Each structure stands twice: as structure tokens, then as C-alpha cells.
Amino acid sequence: MRCRIAAFAFALSIVATSACALDGDADPNFGDGGQVAITRPSDGGGNGTKPTGDLLQRDDGRYLWAAPLDDGSVWVGRSLHDGSPDAAFGGGGRVTLPACGDARNVRLADDGAGGAVVWAGSCLVRLDADGATVAGFGGGTEAPPKGFNATGFARDAQDRYVLAGNAGPLELRVHRFGADGIADESFGTHGGTVVVVPTTNGFADINALVVRADGRILVGGDRGNTHGPNLVVVQLNEDGTPDASWDGDGVVDLEPPPGHDRLIANALALDDDGSLVVSGMSSDGGVSCCLMLTRFDTSGQIVPSFGLRIFRLATQPSLFPFFEQRDGVVLLPNRRIVMGTISFPFGAPFTHRTQYTLVRTFADGGIDASFGHDGWNSYTIADPTGAGQTGDYVQMHAIAHDRTDDSVLMLGRTFFEDDSTGDDYVTFVRARFDLVFADAFDR
């Protein structure tokens, strides 16, 4: 059942109660009152920007998660559907991978055998289903250059591992590794290639990666323009060369719409028909106001019936990160689309800062007003210590769809601005979906 609540309650706290549940409320049976928070060891306090982690959802409801630590080491954990640690993994639900470089973004990929492959900031590590490190995986001399920061990682249909990220302002890189973790010499130059996009101010970024079943690779991000960044989506052939079937030269380069000064691709998802759903951000000037959503056909053209959608969330004028942020997008079995981001409410009460935020649309991009508060919902983190910490800054790192109950799990990092203990936390929230048309393709 869906009900309307007073306008002042637009920012949903996961510890709050309501007279009736909303589609998209936090699951009160998950963790401690709807959240899981794990104290994260940090050097010099938890405030500021940190590298991002990742989520990997299992078909049985369990999930793997990864979180980079300040000393370069990496936590990898496995949890049960209710958020409790899976004691069968690593002896207590978590393992710590030793540092193989500076603290950087970490990413996870399913290994197809019950385990996972981890991009641990600067190296590949394979873990078996019990969390033990698989000896002899990876190595070799060809790897991304020093300073590379991963933004996407996936296993393709040929059991190869594809890694994308940024090594500098214009060094956008894609690397591919064989099933053994060794650089794939058939891809690019010694397993890597530099993605070239036009730019007028010397800046460009890769923010997301997906891989087609035939081995072609898509990366999305932005490139500099005289008035603000353009959205770019690049498609590479299986050998790493630009795919001319994608908008003529392998590069979709999309300017912001009238009245907007930036357009950025932050997350990608491939649909069953081969079309590409892209979510991201736009700005109409002084405030980064809006979420962006569009769908490209297999040739790199915007699907006319979908168009370029720009969403503004009431009471949430800022949708750009204050610290680290990694947006997400997932496609649900009933063809709805869920975007994950953070938002910042510029209105009373001021007890919360940045918040996990989900937005749900139909397959054509139209907002699904049956979800949350007319299409969107936000989630805050309560002080897990009971010490009176307020002003939670919640940074989203990943979202994942759990098919066992059609929920969406959110992972990120949280620190508190006021009365802070100085700690920060790896935090999770699970949003419940009440899908009336669970088996219907209504749009």
C-alpha cells in the first residue's frame, strides 16, 4: 500500500517510522534497525574524500563487498541477506588483503566459480568461495601505470577481466586480463589501450564500464568543453580499437541541453535488447541540480521514445558529491530502472548532510511516482555508537539488485560532522520494493 506523508518528511531517515510503508522504504529487518555500519580504521580521521568500494550480489541473497582502507589494504567481506557476516567466508565474514600500492578505488567481479576477483587498488587478487587467496593468479609485468584509479571492472563472456579507469587528466585507460589474471596481449598494446576523446580544456574522465556478450566494451564519462563537460560514451571492439558502428567513430559526444552547462555519464547498464541505459548528472548553473537518464540504441543514437531525461528532486537541490561518490543504475526484471546517487537537502532540519538516494523510472524513462516520494527516496545513517553523532555525510559507492526479494542494496562510507568520534564507517542500507507488477512488462 502506498500513502502520502507531509511535505516536511521528504528526507527519509532509515530509523524513522511512518503510519504506513512506502514502496522503497528501508528494510527494518536488515542489520540494526535498517542499517549496517562497520567502523573503518582510518589514518587522520574519517572526514574528507576517500577511494570507493564495490558490491557483488549473489543469486542466493548473500553479497560480497569491498572497502579500501587508508593504508592501501582492502577489506573484502561476505554477508547474509539480513546484513550479518557470513562466517563461512574468511572465518568470520571478512578478509583483509595486504596493500599492493597506495589506497585507491577497489572493484569486484564474479569469477564464475563461486569466488571473486578483486582489483585491490593496484593489483588483481582472486578469492575462492571461502575467502582464501588463490595462488598463482595475476602477476606479470604489464599493468596499468602508477597513479591509475579504477572506475569499472567486469568479467566478460570469455572469462576475461576488463578494467577501466583514469591515470591522468587525459589518460583514460582500458585494460584486459585473461582468465589467469595475466595481461591479454590480444587487446590493445600489451593488454591495455588509451581511450581518446575530444576535449577543449584538457580534462576527461571515465566513470563507468560495461561489456557486451560479444566482447565489445563500453565506457562512459565526460570530456572538457568551453562551457562545461559533455557526456561521452565510447565503444571499443574486442581488440580495443574504436568501434565505428557506434555513432560513426566509436564516440558519442553529447552536449548539455539548453539551459544546462554540464552533462556527465556516471553509470551504465545494458538491456536485453542491446540498448544502453546511461545515468548521470546535469547542472543548470550555480547548483548541480539534476539527475540525467537516457537510452542509446545499438548504433549509439538516443532512442527517440526515451529521449534525454532530466530530473530535479524537490528539496534536494544539490546532487553532486561533497566528497567521493560513485553512482549506480540497475535494470529491474519488470523493466523499471533504478538510479542510485547522493543528495544534499538545503532545508531544515539540518541534522543530516549527504544521503543515499534512489530514483525509479519506467522503461521509457518516465518517473515512477509509485516509488517513495513521487519517484524517489533518500536514506540517512544513524549514529551506530549511540554517542550523539549527527550530521551524517553518506557517500554512495555502489548499488546492487537482489532478485531474491527485488530489493536494492546500497554500499558507501559515512562520517559524522557534529559530535564526531573521528571514526568513519562502511555503511549499508537495503531498500524494499513493493512491485505490484512484478511480472508485468507494463511499459
From TrEMBL:
Q: Which UniProt keywords apply?
A: Signal
Q: What InterPro entries would the database entry show?
A: Delta_60_rpt, Quinoprotein_ADH-like_sf
Do you know which SUPFAM superfamilies this protein is assigned to? Quinoprotein alcohol dehydrogenase-like
Q: Which residue positions does the secretion signal occupy?
A: 1-21
Q: What name appears for this protein in its UniProt entry?
A: Putative delta-60 repeat protein
To which species is this protein native? Dokdonella fugitiva
